[in-house]
Design a protein that fits this description.
Distance between the termini: 70 Å
Largest sheet: none
Structural class: mainly alpha
Number of helices: 3
Number of domains: 1
Strand content: under 5%
Number of strands: 0
Shape: elongated
Length: 73
């Protein structure tokens, strides 16, 4: 294996980087995640991802029912 040249700038103090783990979140990043930021008023109602998902699934079902009624008419 070829050794790489040290490209780190001299002003960086590596002694301050205690406890760092290389690639700590690499697996999570590879799996793919969707991060959605909620507005403050919405976040006050939905405190966790489960409650947001439940509300959105309800909205999806209602929308599908509405579309089905229009298709039948």
């Amino acid at each position: 294996m070829k050794k790489r040249a040290d490209e780190l700038r001299p002003e960086y103090d590596l002694s301050q980087l205690k406890g760092a783990v290389r690639g700590k979140y690499a697996v999570r990043a590879q799996q793919g995640t969707n991060i959605i930021l909620l507005d403050k008023d919405v976040a006050e109602v939905f405190h966790d991802d489960a409650s947001v998902n439940e509300a959105l699934r309800t909205l999806i079902r209602l929308h599908a029912q509405k579309q089905q009624r229009f298709a039948e008419a």
